[in-house]
Write a structure and sequence with these properties.
By secondary structure, the chain is of the alpha/beta class. It has helices at residues 3-16, 31-42, 56-60, 83-87, 107-119, 151-154, 166-174, 180-188, 211-223, 228-239, 241-253, 261-266, 272-281, 284-297, 302-313, 317-330, 335-339, 345-356; strands at 20-24, 45-50, 62-66, 71-75, 95-100, 121-122, 125-126, 131-137, 157-161.
Length: 357
């Protein structure tokens, strides 16, 4: 399942059930980010715990004597959104509690977690009704040092296996300071988004690319000024030498680049030749990324609309339609105002309405 599809499922499970959602994927695909984004989009709280770094007593809480009644009670740990914690204002009333890498947790700690995962209770404390539980797991393969969870626990999870998807990764990148060089490379070499190592190669120095790694590369290229040799060595340390060599080889020999969306919206003439070259070369993959970046930056100003009109006039009809569809999905509040200021809108209005209805 793609991450975009998994997020739809997570939100429906949160709203309509008390099920524990388990996301399973290779490293760096975005399990944690998917839960965080769902919490943000739902407008609820989020608490992530790396359960493998904790022990059973951490979850059980501190014992406290009730001398009046002659019994021992347990004080709930600070990190759990229990009913009392929500009433005291320590947590919002609704949220997602995510236990990271649950199948790395030692067996004795997993036993302590059973009542929390299965009954939403632990040592006399109940999870607040508005809080639901999620877990993440790596695959049970030789590449990962994980423990096997027994069938009784797995049977209580709604397990979602997610895979790396380039379209989803590009959409994520466009929301988080994208680097055009990385997106252009991955569009040309989509199989390099994630490389699953053979078990025999699973060592600290035998690195291979992951979506998380490419995000770090984008941050590095966007924010650091380094000589090419040093930059290549750092990127090799993120992606592995094979992927780094492939990436820099692509940059040296490429014929096409993604035009700057910022420049397009400010003065279309500065990038017009680049866009025409993409159209003539049939590089519709790079045109698609450019359009998505452009929509992300649109604010509806007169200057932007004039430049958009010029740009749309140079595009094939299918990409004019793609622009309007993306605009309707991403910026619905600006759709009519922007669309009506473009000369191609009236000619395509019926097709556009069919696309967005």
């Amino acid at each position: 399942m793609r991450i975009s599809e998994a997020k739809i499922s997570i939100k429906q499970l949160y709203i309509n059930t008390d099920c524990v959602t388990a996301l399973v994927s290779e490293r760096g695909v975005g399990k944690t980010s998917a839960f965080e984004q769902c919490a943000c989009e739902l407008g609820i709280g989020y608490m992530g715990l790396y359960a493998a770094a904790m022990e059973g007593p951490d979850f059980m809480g501190l014992p406290d004597k009730d001398r009046e009644k002659g019994i021992t009670r347990y004080l709930a740990p600070q990190f759990l959104p229990t009913c009392n914690a929500v009433e005291e204002g320590l947590f919002p009333s609704n949220g997602l509690l995510v236990l990271e890498e649950i199948n790395r947790v030692p067996t004795d700690t997993v036993s302590v977690l059973y009542p929390l995962l299965l009954e939403r209770k632990i040592n006399g404390h109940s999870l607040a009704p508005g809080w639901k539980i999620g877990v993440t797991m790596n695959p049970d393969t030789l590449n990962y040092s994980v423990n096997s969870l027994d069938d009784a626990m797995i049977d209580r999870f709604v397990t979602i296996e997610i895979t790396a998807n380039l379209e989803d990764y590009i959409a994520y990148s466009l929301q988080n300071s994208p680097c055009d060089d990385v997106l252009a490379y991955l569009t040309a070499c989509p199989d390099m988004l994630l490389r699953v190592k053979k078990a025999a190669d699973s060592t600290a120095t035998a690195k291979s690319p992951t979506p998380r790694g490419w995000t770090r590369v984008q941050q590095l290229l966007n924010n650091c000024s380094l000589p090419e040799k040093l930059m290549q060595e750092l990127i090799s340390g993120i992606l592995g030498p094979e992927a780094a060599a492939s990436f820099f080889g692509y940059l040296k020999n490429r014929e096409y680049t993604i035009p700057s969306a910022e420049a397009l919206l400010a003065d279309y003439e500065t990038v017009r030749s680049q866009i025409k070259k993409l159209v003539q070369g049939g590089r519709f993959d790079l045109l698609s990324i450019m359009l998505k970046k452009t929509v992300h930056l649109i604010d509806g100003s007169d200057t932007q609309c004039r430049n958009l009109d010029c740009m749309l006039s140079d595009l094939p009809e299918e990409f004019q339609l793609l622009f309007f569809k993306t605009l309707a999905n991403e910026k619905p509040e600006l759709f009519l105002d922007v669309a009506q200021q473009t000369s191609v809108f009236s000619a395509l209005s019926n097709q556009i309405l069919n696309l967005v209805s």
